[in-house]
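ARCHIVE CARD
SHELF: 3
SLOT: left
DATA:
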Amino acid sequence: MMELMTQRKEEDMQGGGRRRRGRKGTRKGSRKARRGSKKRTAGKWISHVKKYAKDNNMSFKDAMSSSECKRSYKKM
């Protein structure tokens, strides 16, 4: 009996607790949100940066920070 009590105390000291189980399908309005959603295309700036990166053989990140890329977009 005493061993059982010490075991429980050790378990309590570990912290943690019971895991919560989520309920499936409890999101409100999830069905309505999906009904009218359309897949969006990238904006003009992002498309320009992707094209610039591909044409100049550089990464998207480098193209985003490139001043030449910014200048060429304004000329369009």
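SLOT: right
DATA:
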Amino acid sequence: MTNAVAQLRAATDLTMDEVIGIRALPDAVRTPDVGYALGVIHGAAAALRATPREMLEDLDLLTAPART
């Protein structure tokens, strides 16, 4: 899960809230790896019977860690 979130953060300048809430990502960031990462997040959330936002929030992955 952390790899999927890290990959999405690296691929776009959108927040995780925006990434999981958007219906279609911009063409510039729509790659197979980004699609796979989104699939991992949505699949895991479905398995947990939660929304992607709820799951990421529970795992403390919704917001990026503070940069040092």
